[in-house]
Amino acid sequence: MKLTIFNGSPRGQNSNTNLLLEQFLRGFCETPGNSYEVYHLNQIAKHEEFVQAYANAEAVLIGFPLYTDGMPGVVKEFVDRLQPFVGREGNPAMGFLVQSGFIESLHSRYVEKYLRKLAQRLGARYIGTIVKGGLEGIRMQPPNMTRKLFACFEEIGRVYAQTGSFDPHLLRRLAKPERISPLLIPFIWLLSLTGLTNFYWDMMLKENKAYDRRFAQPYCE
Amino acid sequence: MKITILNGNPDLSNRDFDRYLETLQEALEDGGHAVTCMTLRDLNLHYCNGCFGCWVKTPGECLARDDSGGVRRAVIGSDLTVFASPLVMGFVSALTKKMMDKMIPLLHPYIVFDRGEMHHLARYKRYPQLGLLLQKTIGSDDEDLALASEIVSRTAINFKSKLCFTKLIEEPIQEVVNEINHI
Question: Can you count the helices (H) and strands (E) in chain B?
Answer without folding.
Answer: 6, 7
